[in-house]
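Narrative of accomplishments. A recurring question from our advisory board has been how the design workflow behaves on a single, concrete structure rather than in aggregate. To address it, we present the structure tokens for one chain from the evaluation set, followed by the sequence designed for it. No filtering or post-editing was applied between the two.
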């Protein structure tokens, strides 16, 4: 009986101590949430954007917008490459929006975003947009083909595309 009580006490203490070191999801910063979602460094410039935030960019604002879906290995690949470029170029903020999570809602705001970003059923993620004074001035999407791969050569090619795109913004 003593062994059972000691085991329960030890387990309770370990559980309590383990729980103390874990941040609740609500307490995580956007960078930390994005890092968890895309398996990248917690020091990243990604900020979650709502539909209203995206629409606000088109009201004479400027910024970089990353559309991706962490359930897609291609978006994860793109996020990792983009994060590397952003770090090298010292970009401090990028808006992140996942259209897949709300695609079924087909509301007026979502339709407006699709129109502004020229998104349709055939659009594939990830896509990076440069928005200046409320207008898309350029974008880069990683077109996935049957022969596409996520090897080093593809990463270098995508890194160059993203670097060219980000250079326009800076």
């Amino acid at each position: 009986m003593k062994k059972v009580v000691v085991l329960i006490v030890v387990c309770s203490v370990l559980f309590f101590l383990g729980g103390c070191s874990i941040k609740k999801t609500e307490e995580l910063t956007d960078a930390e949430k994005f890092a968890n979602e895309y398996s990248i460094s917690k020091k990243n410039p990604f900020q979650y954007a709502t539909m209203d935030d995206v629409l606000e960019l088109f009201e004479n604002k400027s910024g970089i917008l990353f559309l991706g879906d962490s359930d897609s290995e291609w978006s994860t690949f793109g996020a990792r490459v983009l994060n590397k470029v952003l770090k090298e170029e010292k970009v401090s903020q990028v808006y992140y929006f996942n259209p897949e999570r709300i695609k079924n809602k087909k509301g007026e705001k979502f339709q407006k975003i699709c129109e502004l970003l020229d998104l349709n059923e055939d659009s594939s993620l990830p896509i990076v947009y440069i928005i200046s004074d409320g207008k898309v001035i350029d974008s880069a999407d990683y077109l996935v083909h049957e022969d596409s791969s996520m090897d080093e050569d593809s990463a270098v090619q995508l890194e160059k595309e993203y670097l060219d795109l980000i250079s326009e913004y800076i």
